[in-house]
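Good morning C.,

I know you're traveling, so I'll keep this short. The sequence:
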Amino acid sequence: MPQRGVAASVTNLRAAGISLCMIVKDEERFLDDALRSVAGVVDEICIVDTGSRDRTRDIARAHGARLAEIPWADNFAHARNAALALATRRWIFVLDADERLDPQSREALAAIGRSRADERGKWITCRNLTDNYKGSGAMSNALVRLFPNDPRIRYRNPIHEFVALDGSEGGLPSDRTAIAIVHHGYLAPIVAERAKSERNLRLSRLAAEREPDDAFHHYNLGMALLLAGDGEGAIGALERTRELTHTAPRGFRIHALIALADLYAERRADLARAEVLIRECLALVPNYSNAHFAHGKLLARGGDLFEARNAFGRAIAAGAHDDEQFVVDNEIAIWKAHSEIGATLMRERRYAQALAWFELAAQARPGAQPLVINRAKCHEALGDLAAAQGLFAAAFEAYRDEASTVEWINYLLRRERIDEAVHAVDHALTLVRPDMQALLLGTVAAALLRAGEPVRARAALEHALRLDASARATLVAVASQLGVPELIGLLPQAIDTRAKPLHIAYR
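The tokens, ready to paste straight into the viewer:
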């Protein structure tokens, strides 16, 4: 093995500059924009294609890329290392096709390309755009994507691969930089389109079975199981991660502890165990906004709203240290913690104070769906119906999803605007799940019956049964919960589900 400094000196014999290294497959949708984002900053483009059937290779050639084609081997590190082997410049910069170099980072990246190299890499910030909260912004993680062109520095692990010196489990010693990239691949339509969750689960499971004492494999498996909805499986994998990193901490340990705490609280209602895990995380990183935020949600779940607000306040303050963290939800200190404070105040019916917190959060993210809906609820509780209606309607028009649909229809029913509610339901049924369709139609039917319109109420019930023949139990439950037992008497004993569904007549 070369002595320290020998390989670095060989690296510095290479021409100064940056080799962009990428792996791609069917990326015609993204690749051109990715390459344009680094044009004039990188000195060569090295791309490995693992089986594209679209225009990906043509786009790469149009940008002057050095292109190699290899078969996909279910191993991201293998493909990445093939791209590294094409590089000739002193520094390597790794980018995926669905990522973009932040324009404000161009000069900082170019400056590193002109500098000498040693056996250390550079951490960059990856801002992952997400639409989980619709209009919420991004969450970030730190990645080593910039490093010397040294044959001792190569990727390891078939999934969630990372660059390492001589294959070390600890990766490559690296320094923080202000360089940032923006990742579009976690937007919901793209995740669904690419079946990322299924692929990641399969590869993570194989890696954990092959190397059962590798903590990172179990962490990746736990997160993949969590995304797949297997909470109990995720608990097992993340507990194994915690066990393997207990005496040899790794950067992902803190995120595993938070995920575990959430699972114990939400899946098993074991708040005591969740509290232990959160405090274990905070002992490691006292200024971690994610951990304080998770603690606040845990306290709120247990009913200690005062201490929950204190925890959310600490999450806001910890936002000043977000740049020090390797995985962080940047939105916590910007608006999410403010929103949660508002939610605790709503639970205490302190609507004016809650609204003030929601409005403060909305200054940063005015379009975030939870803020729009919660502001509407506060205005309604305070008697400002014009403001409430405007916000409920705005959420419905902007997002057209289940949450905004249900809130808008419920608002109309609370205000006894039954015809408008019927109209909204009739045009929103394609936006909600089948069980929610029955729930909405049953609720509307109850409102119609109370208003003395049994014919229209029966039409709503028939519509529900035509959409889903198994909806009868849901409709019976609605009648019981809303205290309208006579609704059950309107349910037809049988209905021809082959008939064309009837629209509910409305004035």
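Safe travels,
E.
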